[in-house]
Design brief:
The structure is a homodimer of 317-residue chains. By secondary structure, chain A is an alpha+beta fold. The first copy, chain A, is built from ten helices and 13 strands.
Chain lengths: 317, 317
């Protein structure tokens, strides 16, 4: 029998996505089905984005790492990041909780309050949910977003586009090494603005190289990252010195936005930069060729990185 | 410390719902927040319904009770039932799965295929999802519905309205006693048609008396059920003889629709009945008074029923 542990999460999802994509053709309401950061649907008016993500105790977090309110904020933020990566704004959230009966009720209150507060801060509302008994705490959040302007997918990058990254890299990954989870940044305004000029966009949750790989495969292009250009978080520079850029390129959990921007649109991008509410750095470019990411050192030589990313079911060595 | 087991699922949800309802005022996009079968939002065009529900192994099902495909169909159907209970049609589904690595991948395939098939049969699409590691199988489905006609909530029932029920009662509850879960009926066409005339509507998942109680509280009315009128499932009549109607009034899992219809609209209801695709039976009426459900025997005397409904965290006697 082929078990999940044999197939792995990514492979299972890729297989299901292909199947759903094939069978989803012909429904004009579905602008974009599975396989991107969120699904886009148009039941009538403007496109809506639909996405869902689960945080499971012992898998995605340990209770001593985060307060319950911070968990709620995180559950919202990781979904908001997917919506932002398509140029959307979070609009409506549903919260499905599993919890053991021994959990203090105040803790679950705090999780929901954290979701509610994070949603409001992002201009969204928590409009419903569900609670089930479960052996461990699990927080599933489904998010509906609206697209105020352009809808940007992973699939539009073209050779010659430059790659722009919000914020800094590596800080969250360093936190995980030290047994804590950093807050997920909300790049919603930045996402809407970048969507005006981006040919493709993704949020960097599994590590820059791994997530850029998704853009490459969806767009049918290659990409190059210049290690020397990476906006490495100061704490990472301090802790890892010369190894910091390599760590930052592969570490996950940063939830920054990565956008490919065609050269012709860079003069539109320039005046937007001070309105993003965060740093924006050019970290590389899209190139022709097979869908792969090359990481270059300061002298332009290709660098090998440890394999990054996270698979729930992959067997650890 | 007040624990979940002390508060109970219903009380915790009621408390959160009140809090969210208070804080949700002032957002004109939210037509209906938490507290009904689904949330209704209008980001632009027609109202959308948003709902979410989770099936947890060992809580809502045991794997030997249902095939994986039947589990997927059930996850879709229980959410579709909430959408139907408001006069909506399912449109878009998101599937969030938790599963142990030891689960055969084919089983998870079958769950997703079951969701997909059920969605298509109902005119909806599975547009996205997520997979996480988890100690036990848990299936969370978030559903977006559209409202083609009237949106019907739990809150509109008025004294004098008669109560109409689709299908039959008790069959699913009898199945649970025998260690199996009946298929959840899809009452989508019936829901849209009943919404034309109903003052209030709900799906009967926790038992007729318990769910009618929700309508009474939301509408500020009382209700009377006549045991002799209940459309008891034939298998229940055979198994429980004279006790069958009382069992049917309290047993859960039937997922039929219960609609309150004002007398003035009964002449509109009559010609719709043969288009519902199922039986429709008058089982009682809405009365003035405190929000409570009275169950009457054939002579009009009040009958006591065992307390029905299911609470994930209530301590069993």
């Amino acid at each position: 029998v082929l078990r999940l542990a044999d197939v792995g999460e990514q492979a299972w999802i890729a297989r299901l996505t292909r199947r759903l994509a094939r069978s989803g053709r012909g429904d004009r309401r579905v602008l974009l089905g599975p396989g991107d950061d969120a699904a886009a649907v148009r039941p009538g008016g403007r496109p809506l984005l639909l996405t869902v993500d689960t945080l499971v105790e012992g898998v995605h977090f340990r209770r001593r790492w985060l307060s319950p309110a911070a968990l709620g904020r995180r559950a919202f933020a990781v979904n908001a990041s997917d919506v932002a990566a398509m140029g959307g704004r979070p609009a409506f959230a549903l919260l499905a909780l599993e919890a053991p009966g021994s959990l203090p009720a105040a803790d679950l209150d705090a999780v929901a309050a954290g979701v509610d507060a994070a949603a409001r801060r992002a201009g969204a509302r928590l409009v419903g949910g569900n609670l089930s008994a479960g052996a461990r705490l699990a927080i599933t959040l489904a998010l509906v977003g609206v697209v105020p302007g352009r809808l940007v997918t992973r699939a539009g990058a073209r050779p010659g586009d430059r790659l722009w990254l919000t914020g800094t890299l590596g800080g969250a990954g360093l936190g995980v090494r030290r047994g804590r989870l950093a807050a997920v940044p909300l790049r919603i305004a930045a996402g809407v603005l970048l969507a005006r000029v981006a040919s493709a966009m993704i949020d960097v949750s599994d590590g820059l190289v791994q997530d850029l790989g998704h853009v490459c495969r969806a767009s049918g292009v290659g990409a190059e990252i210049e290690l020397a250009r990476l906006p490495v978080a100061p704490a990472v520079r301090r802790a890892l010195k010369a190894g910091a850029p390599r760590f930052a390129a592969a570490a996950g959990e940063d939830y920054e936005l990565l956008a490919a921007v065609p050269p012709a649109r860079e003069r539109v991008l320039a005046p937007l930069r001070h309105r993003l509410g965060c740093r924006l750095t050019c970290v590389g470019r899209i190139v022709a060729g097979r869908p792969a990411v090359r990481v270059l050192d300061a002298r332009g030589r290709a660098v090998r990185l440890p394999r990054g990313g996270f698979d729930h079911f992959a067997r650890r060595a």
